[in-house]
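HUMAN: Mind making up another protein with tokenized structure?

ASSISTANT:
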Amino acid sequence: MNRVALIIAGSGNNKDEDKAIIYHIGNYINFLSSNAGGAWEKEEIEYFNKPTLEQINYETNKVKTTYTLIILIGHGAIQDGKHVFQLNEKEIIKTGQIYTSSKKHLIILESCRSKIENILTIDLEDKIPKFERGGIVRAPITRELSKELFFNSLRNCVENDIVCFACKESETANNFYFTNSLLQTCMNWHLDPGPHLQTLGINELMRHLNLEVNELSLIQIGVPQSPTISGFANFPFCVSKF
């Protein structure tokens, strides 16, 4: 069983948006590369900055893996009932065009539409948690075991295409609330001493984010934002620390 992550930075409307997109792309890469994200290796992650559709088609045609994770960050919209994404300054594509021969796909769409003045930060530092409740203090798992847990969980998932949207069709995605909440929730779960040799699946994660992101958006800017998921396979996205 093998895997590949295709991480695509789309075109922003200005330099601030471009900077914010690149910042959050970096957070995804750092997370995936860590034990928390399943210990992806450099050769398993491919990053594209405002690529052409020709480039993307060339790269996706080369993919011969069991599992493909596709992350797109940039501007998007709904057109004729289908999600479209601004790949670069000249090309807007349907996200359904970015598929590989893999039988298992997880697509994460962070389609930001607001002007970014300040880049929101998250804490991805892998800190040893305090064991205030006492009990058994476990040693952190190794990188090899993190991979093993990820692949064991993936192996038990049915073949399916999962798409995670930052918001519902009638809403806009703002200020990277979705990406920030997704990565911070994963790190918090990873650092919790409760889960032992476990993975956090995308279904459980999205159920949590549907509530958390909506509440955050209502408090911060007064508009709803409800992340949604299409598909049913519970692909792993985070691995426990212990």
User: Anything to note?
Assistant: The chain has five helices and eleven strands.
